[in-house]
Task: inverse folding
């Protein structure tokens, strides 16, 4: 990474400007959808249900305000800067509290910065959200390369570990010398990677997805009911909805065509992540009963962002990269994390990871808690609760 | 299954007729494709250059009337079996003592992949064979595929399709016949072998569907020595099941159904990403004009266009969901062995080259085993003459038995 001062390392303000004709084209495509027949079952066991996606399409084309993505993002300080050959887009909200702790938080797939927007208030302005001034964070929310408004990698090698190298450079450029990092899903892999690389200035990490368990549960104890249940939850996930993962990890280009060409295909693919979030989102569209922040508008903000940025293929490729990196490192233990680690188990997460596993994988575990609400998209669904977890996890590091 | 005579059991002639509006819409959609950026590595799936060449040929040069012309030149019928309209091609040989053969296509195939077989099988004297090699050919569309209707309830796995096929043959009036299949067609044909309906004399496979059941169980049997070749082929078998398309269609066929109905290029990509060998061959046809056998641009697009115009991307995928459930059930409660005579041809470019002893383990009554010199997963499509030669040789001994019993 270059440390010389040149135009590439410059940080430039960024605003979104989506041309009307792109939105018109999107709306036309939604209305022209050629639908399959209804699934033959009454639940999620054949995938995203026709009634869910029809309700989504109806709301998307008839009621959704396509200006929302522009308005929500442009209301925030956004920037871009080139790191390691890729243009990185990020939101940077400084707290009014000068001694706030800088926090870099990474979204996942099928997420984007959209899923983290509602945490900005509580994290940066705690006194207005049930906290005290000492809880304040300066917040950096970057878009992973290939996602949203960051540029797409045009060369191989952009797996989570390389993103984890770019983020410290971003923090350094912003002038932060002591900071913490957080992530779930793909963001957890990036954050775990940062923890292992231990860049100067990173003083702690928090994740809400257990990355060391993704390679298999062999190393972890299976004695208690809770541990055995966690094994079972992982097996159920791999047997009942793992296709998207395998496809993106092996053939991101193949599925990429559909994700670029059909908005309903894109929405279906993105909604089909895990059972808990699927039923919550389906309930928002079909029954008008959203779970927390997983509202129709919020879900469609995210799907619309993927569509308008045309990033279905490039986002899918991040799974391929991580798959390749995993294959390369087969058998080699990654370097340990030696800085303090925080972990929150959310009850609706795919696997409710037991404390014993987290402790084994992260000997420096400094915080572990079981939240009482929230699933895989915890920051999105329960931003207030999520914020309280980060306050508690990182409090001792201030 | 009903044996009473009613209108439902009638066999009705069938002609394909697409509306011009459907074809116009397809052409518009291809032209309006929103393309992703180029893959960063060739192994990331169907390559952009290949699919762009396909889209270009599809909209500018391909004759959208081909499917109608090719299919309507053949005797086609439908008949209702077990609540579904079954579409089938039925070509009788001019040779009266021809052996009836029921051939089942697979995914991402259709009756299209079998069309070039019809001449060599029904009219052997015009294709290097003798009158004694003649077959009457029945090529049905699997429920949910092509012009057969879609199942509206779960349960249409290989076993139920196998039962429907036996009913179809009996309804046509064939009291002695053989059956053949590769890919999903091998699953259906395997089920028929186990059900051993009246009149079924023997079966031929060009894909070992029995691997997940018998061979994988055998792999746990320490008394069986595993050679280097065994291990190599087993790793290819496992590779098949690590593919995203199988997992997605097996678990969530509805989710992938949306792109397959709504985006022609999404559909084409999904169908072409089947196996490395056929992909290379089809890619060669579109990019370099280098065609392998019968896998021509027109033939490949006939099949994709058929999927599009019949709107069967989701219903065809659901068969994998059924197959997955069926395999799980069969593990707990193994179906009866196949006692009927079994013939098997290994094609050199198939996903894996089943060693003879695997096939023998799965099917004890193995009467024919051969390694063909050319052809891959879509062997009947790619090398119809070689494929027809295999079927002639495979079933020759059963003709004598058939006529003497």
Result:
């Amino acid at each position: 990474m270059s440390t010389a001062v040149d135009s590439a390392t410059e940080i430039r303000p960024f605003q979104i400007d989506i041309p009307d004709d792109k939105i018109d084209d999107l709306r036309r495509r939604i209305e022209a959808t050629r639908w399959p027949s209804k699934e033959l079952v009454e639940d999620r066991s054949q995938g995203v249900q026709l009634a869910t996606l029809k309700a989504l399409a109806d709301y998307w084309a008839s009621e959704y305000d396509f200006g929302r993505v522009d308005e929500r993002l442009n209301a925030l300080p956004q920037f871009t800067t080139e790191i390691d050959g890729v243009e990185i887009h990020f939101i940077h909200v400084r707290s009014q509290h000068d001694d706030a702790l800088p926090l870099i938080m990474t979204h996942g797939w099928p997420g984007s910065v959209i899923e983290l927007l509602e945490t900005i208030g509580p994290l940066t302005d705690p006194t207005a959200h049930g906290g005290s001034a000492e809880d304040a964070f300066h917040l950096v929310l970057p878009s992973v390369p290939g996602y949203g408004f960051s540029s797409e990698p045009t060369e191989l090698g952009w797996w989570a570990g390389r993103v984890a190298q770019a983020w410290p450079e971003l923090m350094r450029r912003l002038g932060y010398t002591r900071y913490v990092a957080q992530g779930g899903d793909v963001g957890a892999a990036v954050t775990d990677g940062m923890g292992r690389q231990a860049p100067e200035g990173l003083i702690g990490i928090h994740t809400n997805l257990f990355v060391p368990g993704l390679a298999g549960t062999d190393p972890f104890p299976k004695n208690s009911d809770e541990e055995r249940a966690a094994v079972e939850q992982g097996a159920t996930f791999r047997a009942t909805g793992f296709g998207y993962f395998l496809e993106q990890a092996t053939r991101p280009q193949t599925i990429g065509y559909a994700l670029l060409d059909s908005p309903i295909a894109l929405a279906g693919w993105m909604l089909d992540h895990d059972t808990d979030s699927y039923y919550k989102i389906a309930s928002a569209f079909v029954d008008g009963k959203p779970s927390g922040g997983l509202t129709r508008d919020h879900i469609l903000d995210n799907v619309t962002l993927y569509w308008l940025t045309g990033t279905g293929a490039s986002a899918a490729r991040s799974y391929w990269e991580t798959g390749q990196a995993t294959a390369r490192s087969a058998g080699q233990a990654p370097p340990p994390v030696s800085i303090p680690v925080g972990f929150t188990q959310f009850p609706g997460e795919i696997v409710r990871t037991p404390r014993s596993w987290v402790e084994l994988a992260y000997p420096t575990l400094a915080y572990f808690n079981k939240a009482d609400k929230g699933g895989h998209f915890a920051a999105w669904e329960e931003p207030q609760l999520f914020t309280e977890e980060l306050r508690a996890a990182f409090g001792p590091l201030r | 299954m009903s044996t009473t005579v009613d209108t439902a059991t009638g066999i009705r002639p069938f002609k394909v007729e697409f509306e011009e509006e459907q074809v116009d819409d397809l052409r518009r959609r291809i032209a309006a494709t929103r393309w992703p950026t180029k893959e960063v590595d060739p192994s990331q799936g169907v390559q952009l250059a290949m699919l762009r060449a396909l889209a270009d040929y599809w909209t500018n040069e391909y004759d959208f009337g081909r499917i109608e012309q090719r299919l309507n030149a053949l005797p086609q019928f439908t008949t209702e079996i077990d609540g579904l309209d079954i579409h089938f091609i039925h070509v009788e040989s001019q040779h009266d003592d021809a052996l009836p053969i029921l051939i089942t296509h697979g995914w991402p195939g259709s009756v299209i992949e079998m069309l070039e077989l019809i001449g060599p099988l029904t009219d052997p004297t015009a294709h290097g064979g003798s009158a004694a090699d003649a077959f009457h050919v029945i090529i049905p569309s699997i429920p949910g595929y092509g012009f057969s209707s879609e199942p509206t309830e779960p349960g249409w796995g290989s076993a139920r399709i196998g039962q429907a096929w036996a009913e179809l043959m009996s309804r046509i009036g064939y009291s002695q016949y053989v059956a053949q299949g590769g890919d999903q067609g091998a699953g259906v044909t395997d089920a028929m072998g186990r059900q051993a309906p009246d009149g079924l004399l023997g079966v031929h496979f060009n894909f070992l569907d029995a691997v997940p059941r018998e061979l994988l169980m055998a792999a746990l049997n320490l008394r069986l020595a595993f050679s280097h070749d065994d291990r190599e082929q087993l790793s290819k078998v496992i590779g098949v099941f690590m593919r995203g398309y199988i997992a997605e269609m097996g678990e969530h066929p509805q989710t992938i159904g949306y792109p397959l109905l709504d985006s022609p290029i999404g559909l084409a990509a999904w169908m072409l990403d089947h196996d490395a060998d056929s992909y290379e061959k089809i890619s060669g046809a579109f990019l370099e004009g280098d065609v392998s056998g019968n896998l021509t641009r027109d033939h490949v697009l006939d099949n994709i266009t058929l999927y599009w115009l019949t709107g069967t991307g989701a219903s065809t995928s659901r068969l994998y969901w059924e197959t997955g459930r069926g395999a799980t059930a069969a593990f707990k409660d193994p179906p009866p062995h196949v006692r009927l005579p079994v013939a098997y041809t290994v094609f050199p470019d198939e996903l894996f080259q089943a060693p003879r002893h695997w096939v023998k383990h799965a099917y004890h009554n193995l009467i024919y085993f051969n390694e063909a010199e050319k052809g891959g997963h879509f062997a009947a499509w790619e090398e119809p003459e070689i494929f027809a030669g295999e079927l002639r040789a495979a079933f020759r001994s059963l003709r004598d038995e058939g006529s003497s019993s």
User: Anything to note?
Assistant: The first helix of chain B runs from residue 20 to 31.
